[in-house]
């Protein structure tokens, strides 16, 4: 099994398929991931979702962008 999350310098990276599964999964796990992403962004890093070939599918550089994305996810989860 490949790594789920990894750091590339100061950025937190995740494969798109892994992120999709996490969004559908356990709320406790997802909350932990949200916290890790927020910490990464607060330190000046980015959260990057990439495809299997490494192409950037989504990049978050600001906490407000990520929080908006999470609100959309939370709305879909309910």
Task: Give a written overview of the molecule.
The chain has 78 residues and is of the alpha+beta class. The chain has one domain. It contains three helices and four strands. The protein has helices spanning 16-24, 27-42, 63-77; strands at residues 5-8, 11-15, 47-50, 56-60. The longest helix is centred in the middle third of the chain and has 16 residues, at 27-42. The N and C termini lie far apart (30 Å).
Structural class: alpha+beta
Distance between the termini: 30 Å
Mean pLDDT: 89
- Please compute the radius of gyration using only Cα atoms: 12 Å
- Our count of domains comes out at 1
Low-confidence regions: none
Strand content of the residues, in percent? 15-25%
**Helix count, per DSSP?**
3
User: How can the largest sheet be summarized?
Assistant: 4 strands, mixed
> What share of residues is helical?
40-55%
SSE topology string: EEHHEEH
Q: What global shape is seen?
A: globular
């Amino acid at each position: 099994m490949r790594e789920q999350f990894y750091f590339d310098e100061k950025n937190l990276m995740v494969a798109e398929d892994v992120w999709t599964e996490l969004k559908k999964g356990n709320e406790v796990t997802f909350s932990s991931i949200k916290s890790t992403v927020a910490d990464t962004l607060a330190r000046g890093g980015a959260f990057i979702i990439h495809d299997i070939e490494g192409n950037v599918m989504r990049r978050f550089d600001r906490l407000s962008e990520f929080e908006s994305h999470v609100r959309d996810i939370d709305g879909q989860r309910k």
